[in-house]
Amino acid sequence: MEYKEYLEEVAELSKKVVDPSATDEYPDSLHTPGQRALYDNLREDEDLARQVDQKVQSNKKDNWRGDEAKERDVKRAVYEALEEYDASPNKDDVEDTFNLIKSHTSEY
Q1: For 19-65, how does the pLDDT look when each residue is reduced to its tens digit (9 = 90+)?
Q2: What pTM value is reported for the model?
Q3: Measuring CA to CA, how many Å separate 38 from each of 9, 12, 26, 33, 101?
């Protein structure tokens, strides 16, 4: 690869790091970083990512992080969303998805 092409590729990658929406790798219906993270971690399934996001958004309570009862409600929402999609979600999938959501502090 020539140096100029290399620099152009590095510049394009850096744009995607700074602004993930600069990439066309995500479906148009996934607008937020949290939705995109769900998409990346749930088999790149747009419907499932939106379903989990919607279920969590409608069931989470204020200041849910660190509150065991409220966290259980969020986990239940994740489980229900995964269950609607797949009749028997794996406990590890629920935990992994919950931890991903919990890490997106600005959105959930």
Answers
A1: 555 556 899 999 999 999 999 999 999 999 999 999 999 999 999 99
A2: 0.75
A3: 26, 23, 11, 9, 8
DSSP 8-state assignment for residue 22 = G
Residue located via tokens 């769900």:
38
The rounded distance, in Å, linking the Cα atoms of 79 and 93 is 9
Residue linked to tokens 């850096």: 14
* Backbone φ/ψ region at 66: left (φ over 0), alpha (ψ -120 to 50), beta: left
Position of tokens 């890490």?
A: 103
The helices-and-strands tally (H runs, E runs) of the chain is 5, 0
Query: Which has the closest alpha carbon to 38: 89, 103, 101, 85?
Result: 101
